[in-house]
Amino acid sequence: MVELTLGGKTYEMRFSLKSMRTLEAHYKKPIGKIFKDKDSLESLETLIAFYYACMKSSNKSLTMEKVEDLLDIALDKEEITLEELSEKLSEVIDSSSIMKNSAAKSDEEQSEQEAKN
């Protein structure tokens, strides 16, 4: 869990199973395809969708539009920059136990493959 302060209010952000399901519903495709679409990952729409998905689980009243408004106001008031938003999102994803377990499994599979060769 990572904390983000917007407009004087602190929000908890988590990249969880629920977050991934929210993203799949938004994009209407599996999470793996979302991460493989490099052009899409760099868009503002994706940034907002990921923030919404990561903030929603601990802030049930949030909507995508409300998250966009919060981010827009924070950027306008120079509370945060786009670069800092991207870094914070990376921190949330990297700290996720789902992603850590996935990376560990991938490393293990790669080691096994290298041992076979």
TrEMBL record:
It comes from the Bacteria. Residues 97-117 are annotated as: Disordered. Residues 105-117 have a biased composition (Basic and acidic residues). It holds the Pfam family Phage_TAC_12. This is Uncharacterized protein. It comes from Metabacillus idriensis.
